[in-house]
Design brief:
Blueprint: H1 2-14, H2 37-50, E1 57-61, H3 69-72, E2 76-79, H4 85-95, E3 100-106, H5 107-113, H6 115-124, E4 129-134, E5 137-138, E6 144-145, H7 164-167, H8 173-178, E7 183-190, H9 194-212, E8 217-223, H10 227-230, H11 234-248, E9 252-255
Parallel strand pairs: 1-2, 1-3, 3-4, 4-8, 7-8
Antiparallel strand pairs: 5-6, 7-9
């Protein structure tokens, strides 16, 4: 009987395809069904667990959907005012240089009220990681137009579509920070398919390693959907993202670390 139980346990382990990282709290995710935030959370925590960095990690999240990360990530977290996460992370990293420090921010936060903090942290080459979720809209506060909103895209504050003549063009902040000498690794990925999830995880691993190697700031953009804000089903939003977001925000590495 004992041998049969042991054999069954071994078979179950051999057939295990995926196990939940212990660095995610047991609390159920409160994001809208189909949102990419949960997958992004899981990938960051998987990497931190696999690299044995839980006790050394401090995450910083500001205002917006990203603020909910405190409920789900079993690591030390610090809240920042809207847009100020890079400044707070800078202070933490300089005070505690042996810690692994990252920010987790949305586009309305990082590319709008936090543009100054983002640009200057990148330009200084602060040895931190910035994880940036771009869904082209203010998701938490009602679906208003964001700096990354696409031309002609309808939002709560651009009901007839974004008019570039009066409202400007989408801000490609990832390409902007890639030009700065302080950034060592800059990439844009997504989490809407299994293949893209694997690529994003590899990008997060590379970003973490760059910080451990003291190479400067790593910037990982994750293009995601906001099916609630876009007024679509999750499947429709993923297809819309592929057809509309990716041509403006193409996926792939923009700047790779020097060997």
């Amino acid at each position: 009987m004992e041998e049969e139980l042991t054999r069954e346990s071994i078979c179950q382990h051999e057939n295990l395809v995926y196990s939940r990282t212990s660095l995610m709290t047991p609390k159920a995710l409160s994001y809208c069904p189909g949102c990419g935030h949960g997958t992004a959370h899981r990938l960051i925590m998987e990497v931190i667990e696999e690299m044995n960095l839980q006790s050394q990690t401090i995450g910083v999240a500001p205002v917006g959907c990203s603020v909910l990360a405190y409920d789900f990530l079993d690591i030390d977290m610090q809240q920042a005012a809207h847009g100020r996460a890079p400044a707070v992370a800078t202070g933490i990293k300089r005070l505690l240089p042996d810690k692994f420090v990252f920010t987790y921010q949305g586009d309305g936060d990082l590319a709008a009220i936090g543009t100054g903090e983002t640009i200057h942290a990148c330009n200084r080459g602060e040895n931190i990681c910035i994880f940036f979720v771009n869904n082209g809209i203010y998701g938490m506060t009602g679906g208003q137009m964001a700096p990354t909103t696409l031309p002609n895209m309808k939002t709560a504050t651009s009901p007839y579509g974004r008019d570039v003549v009066t409202m400007g063009y989408p801000l490609k902040i990832t390409e902007m920070v890639a030009m700065l000498p302080g950034t060592c690794f800059v990439t844009r990925q997504s989490v809407h398919t299994p293949a893209n999830v694997r690529k994003t995880k590899k990008a997060i691993q590379k970003a973490v390693q760059c910080q451990l190697d003291k190479k400067g700031l790593s910037f990982v953009e994750i293009v995601s959907n906001c099916n609630s804000g876009w007024k679509m089903t999750p499947l429709e939003s993923n297809k819309w993202m592929e057809e509309n977001m990716f041509p403006v925000f193409p996926l792939g590495d923009i700047k790779v670390p020097k060997s």
